[in-house]
Structures are given as C-alpha cells and as structure tokens.
Amino acid sequence: MRGVGKDLPSALGAWYAAHGYAFLGISDMNTYTWPEEYGNRALPGVPTVDATYAFADVLAVGIDHWLPAQTLQEVIDWIAADGGLPVLAAPLSPAKPQPLVTVMGLHGLYGLEVFDARLAVETAGGADATALWDRLLSAGNRVYAVAGDDATGVIDPAIGGAWISVLAPANDQALLLSSLRRGAFVASNGAEFTSLAVAGTTITAEAAPGSSLRFIGRGGQLLKTVTARAGSYRVNGNEGYVRVELYQGHCYFIPQKLARKQEGLHLPHLCRTEKEEDPDKWLKASQDLDAAGRGRVRPLRTRSGVTSPRPSVVFAAIIPQPMSTPTA
C-alpha cells in the first residue's frame, strides 16, 4: 500500500486474477509498483506510473519512474523520450479539466483516457471524453482511446468498471507492450464485438443479437445505418476516418485503432454507461483501427467470464489514407 492505494499490490492482483483478467498494470501517483508485487506468469504486470502534476495526470505506460515537468507537453516529451507511452488521463476531470486549446496543441500524445470508471461513479460528468477524442482524430492526430477503472482498492465501487483488451499472441509482458505500441487493443466498460474484419476497403462488424450498426465519418457524419447485428461499409476515401458504432441500449462500446495501409487489423473499443440519455449525442465518438487487416480477429480479453448488466454500443474507425497534420 503506497501512494493513494488502499490495498497491498498482492491483494489487488488477486482480485483481478479472480475476475478473469489476463494482465494488469497498477498506476499509482508518482510511484512505481513492481509487477512482481502483484503479477505472476498467469497475470503478467505491465509497468505503469501515474505521472501526477498540479495541472494534469498522465499515465506513463511502460515506465518505471517519474520526472518533474512544468507543462503537459513536457510530461509527454519525457515519457516518450524514455520509451514510454503517454496517455492523458481523465482529461475532463472537474479537478484538472484540460482546455481544448491545450489538448489540441499537444504533440506526441499516444493515448487519451476516454472513459474513467471512477469519474462515472463519483461525478455527474467528466467520465466520457470521446467527443474530445473525436476532435483529436478529426484534426489529424493519431491518438488511441484508453479506458480504466482508476480504482484504489478491492472494495472501490469503480473497480472492474473499465479496462483494455489487447490483441496479442500471449499474455506476456513484452508481447503486450509490443501490441500496445502498435495500437492493437480495445478499451471497454462492458461490451465487445463478436468479430470485426477489414478486407481491402470494406469494414465488416458483428456483435450479439439485438444490435444495430452505424457507420460514421469525420465530424460525426452518419454514413450508413444497419438495423441488424452485422453489417459492412465500403470506404470511398473521402471520409477522413470511418467508425462503426454498434448500439445496444444506453451503453456505448468504442473500438480503437487508426488504419494504415500494409498493417494488420487492430480493434479498440469502449462502452459508456447507461447514464447517457441520448445515443445520437455520441455520434462524434471515433476511433482508429488498422485499415489493411485481413480476415477476422478476436481480442485477448483482459478478463473473461465477466459480463456487464448493461447493453452496449461499439465504435470502430479506420483511416482510409494517412491523415495529414493540420497547418496553423
């Protein structure tokens, strides 16, 4: 028990292992928790530090230390320079809300926490940052969506409320980090595709019975609606990006990987809580997914045998051609 944690790392590891997780990263405030303290061969630990500052919180994935910084850009720079993956955590948190102009002006940001389970439990807003993520993608930024529970102990009501699932051949720390660097993961708080395929410029998605699909482009433009559990969309190249939204009730599932030619399919996703009243409000949520993948893939889930009592919606997005960096 260090930082803001309320339980020993071993107790946290035991909880996540018992609930079907395949790997775990404990990100305490400015404190490194050795993976050996909570992980094992069945539940490998991923080095992570919550780099905390008065102005922001940034998850340093793949990092075992903390360094001082004066600005958010300096934080991103030192994490990236030291070989880590900088993820802007809880960007809409009431405690440290990030100005739009600041976020849009960042360089080298790897990920954005689009769903924070703690904020969903404790606040009326701020948990869902998919609209901000959409702004970043629409402006040509290659940023991945991340979700986390932000739990401080095993009795925390937020524990298990959000996670990422990585598309990796095995739950090995090196392979997991390699997949994370490629964006081969999904972020979720309860939902998932049963399959998703990209063949050439055609995107095909499938989920559980009772689902419906929406294919959406830049700025939230509705491209196609499919009132069925499976559907496809052929990219014409003018969309900027294309995401497929799988809707099942009031919870939203968002996949995540920017598509690039000559690379494999990567699928990220996230499910938002049923507290949201209007599903159409979230049409701007977008994600990046590799466009040149072939065939069907299934994610190595961070947990198994755990189901959400809420329905869900899924978003996947692909970039038909490399996005250019906007000029001032």
Please sum up the structure shown.
This protein is of the alpha+beta class and 328 residues long. It contains six helices and 16 strands.
What CATH calls the topology of the largest domain is TIM Barrel
- The gyration radius over C-alpha positions equals 18 Å
CATH architecture label of the largest domain: Alpha-Beta Barrel
For the biggest β-sheet, the strand order reads: 1-2-3-4-5
Per DSSP, the total helix count is 6
Q: Can you describe what's shown?
A:
The chain is of the alpha+beta class. It folds into 2 domains: 9-181, Alpha-Beta Barrel (TIM Barrel), CATH 3.20.20; 190-318, no CATH class. Helix content is 15%, strand content 23%. The protein has 6 helices and 16 strands. The strands form 4 sheets. Strands 1-2-3-4-5 form a 5-stranded mixed β-sheet. Strands 10, 11, 13, 14 and 16 form a 5-stranded antiparallel β-sheet that branches. The protein has a 4-stranded antiparallel β-sheet with strand order 12-9-8-15, with no helix packed on it. The longest helix is centred in the N-terminal third of the chain and has 10 residues, at 9-18. Residues 250-328 have low confidence and may be disordered.
Any descriptors?
328 residues, alpha+beta, TIM Barrel, 15% helix, globular, disordered C terminus
